[in-house]
Write a structure and sequence with these properties.
Elements lengths: L19 H15 L5 H7 L1 H4 L3 H16 L1 H11 L9 H16 L4 H14 L6 H12 L8 H5 L4 H11 L1 H10 L6 E5 L5 H8 L2 E2 L5 E3 L18 E3 L6 H4 L8 E5 L5 H8 L3 E6 L2 H14 L4 E4 L11 E7 L14 H4 L4 H19 E11 L8 H10 L3 E3 L20 E3 L13 E8 L7
Parallel strand pairs: 5-6, 5-8, 6-7, 8-9
Antiparallel strand pairs: 1-3, 1-4, 2-3, 9-12, 10-12, 11-12
Helix pairs in contact: 1-4, 1-6, 4-6, 5-6, 6-7, 6-8, 7-8, 10-11, 17-18
């Protein structure tokens, strides 16, 4: 199995080694996701002790926790092969310490003596010192193993069985493996410009790659502290995956038009629409999440009307010519950025989500003026949340029809356009650029005299 390369794992000559505090923070974050089912971003935000660490230690703590989450199935297989018998339930904290030790040994190129010694110290400070002998023997056994590159079987172990089966059914076994492989790498940082007409200037300032769709991309580990990057304080750009930046553009020319952005928070698409000159009404049921959107509006100097309301029940005063609906979903298309997702979602969550999505689809259809456009999207790889949801929604709403997306509207992603004229991106697309989130996007039009060309 190849190491997951990252500059955060390799100390510069003379640099202070990353130590016990960073590993203990990683342990806390890892356990918050796997034991408490808390989203990783929430765990990071809630852990104030993380802020007290030097930036390099914070980066390593996050990298170690995310590697443990990305590779958990493989890590558990390695542990099982080195243990004479499974660890009991009462050893859960020790089990997690060993898991993160294996992540370092097998995937992060951590020197064995550093990975082993810090893990034994963690056992001591967490009150599990009695297991140090066992841990030492197990970890040294794993360090000496001859590990093979990721095979199909090893890749499958990085994904819960129910997710793998759904991807294999939808896209085939080979593509499912490509998706799983894409999830193992640290993702790049994507930026959307407030002024899309100046990509070359900002690419030079940021050291970024301009993508065919207009997004700027910084390689993993190159960004550093985001607020310190040129243009952040001035609101010249915001963070947004290249796939997430597509839906707002597919509404066409919205300058001077009324646009409703449903389920709008945290607000990347609202910012895009406002920057394009639209009169935006951003609706989200969470006022707290809308607070983040308002803060980004203030930072970028853009304006939009925000409404805290349930989008299934809220209605504008009059039908509107353009609606963007980024529906709540399983987020399985964002695993490369959010490796906690497979550990938080369950198959039974699907029914609740698809029911809510259907109600939102129907609500959006009811708000749309004759001739108006509705862009539907989800950051999910599950067809029942994307392609099937739209197909069912069209049957329930015969006044709507597909408005096919053209290759020139998604430069460099013609392969993502389906036979129905929808967009289906997969994390395995754009390997030459570093991948892209998984999205389903459909553009629909309400029959009648059009007002949007």
């Amino acid at each position: 199995m190849p190491a997951d390369p990252s500059p955060s794992t390799v100390a510069k000559p003379g640099a202070r080694p990353v130590g016990l505090s960073a590993r203990r923070m990683a342990l806390d974050l890892f356990a918050a996701v796997t034991r408490q089912r808390q989203p990783l971003d929430e765990a990071i935000e809630a852990n104030r002790r993380l802020d007290a660490l030097p930036s390099r230690d914070r980066a390593f703590a996050r990298l170690l926790a995310t590697t443990g989450l990305r590779r958990l199935g493989q890590i558990d297989d390695l542990l099982a092969s080195a243990l004479d018998r499974p660890l009991g339930r009462h050893t859960r904290p020790a089990h997690d310490i060993l898991r993160l030790a294996v992540a370092q040994l097998a995937f992060l190129q951590t020197p064995p003596h550093a990975a082993v010694s810090t893990s034994l110290a963690l056992l001591e400070v967490t009150g599990r010192g009695g297991l140090k002998g066992l841990a030492n023997a197990v970890l040294r056994r794993i360090a000496a193993m001859d590990r093979q590159p990721d095979s199909g079987a090893a890749l499958r172990r990085t994904v819960p069985d129910w997710l793998w089966r759904s991807w294999a059914e939808a896209y085939g076994e080979e593509v499912a493996g490509d998706i799983a492989r894409a999830h193992l790498a640290e993702p790049p940082l994507d930026l959307t410009l407030r002024d899309p007409g100046s990509p070359a200037d900002w690419a030079r300032q940021l050291g970024a790659e301009p993508l065919p769709t207009g997004t700027l991309r910084l390689p993993p580990g190159r960004a550093g502290a985001v607020p310190d990057l040129p243009g952040f304080a001035d609101g010249a750009w915001w963070i947004q995956d290249a796939a997430a930046a597509l839906p707002a553009r597919l509404l066409g020319d919205v300058a001077g038009r009324s646009v409703v952005d449903l389920c709008a928070a945290p607000g990347g698409k609202t910012l895009q629409l406002a920057a394009a000159g639209a009169e935006v009404t951003a609706v989200d049921r969470s006022d707290a999440r809308l607070g983040r959107l308002r803060a980004n509006l203030q930072r970028t100097g853009l304006t939009a009307h925000t409404v805290a309301a349930d989008a299934t029940a809220w209605r504008p005063e009059d039908p509107v010519p353009a609606i963007l609906l980024d529906a709540p979903c399983s987020a399985t298309g964002t695993v490369r950025r959010h490796p906690d997702v497979p550990h938080l979602k369950r198959p039974e969550d699907q029914a609740k989500l698809t029911g809510l999505q259907a109600r939102l689809f129907d609500a959006a259809a009811a708000m749309l003026a004759p001739g108006g456009r509705l862009v539907w999207c989800v950051c999910s790889l599950q067809p029942e949340e994307g392609e099937r949801q739209v197909a069912d929604g069209l049957l329930r709403n015969p006044a709507l029809t597909r408005d096919p997306i053209l290759p020139e509207e998604v430069p460099g992603l013609a392969a993502a356009i389906t036979g129905d004229g929808e967009v289906r991106t997969l994390p395995s697309l754009w390997p030459e650029h570093g991948g892209i989130d998984g999205f389903h996007i459909s553009r629909l039009r309400r029959r009648g005299d059009g007002i949007i060309p």
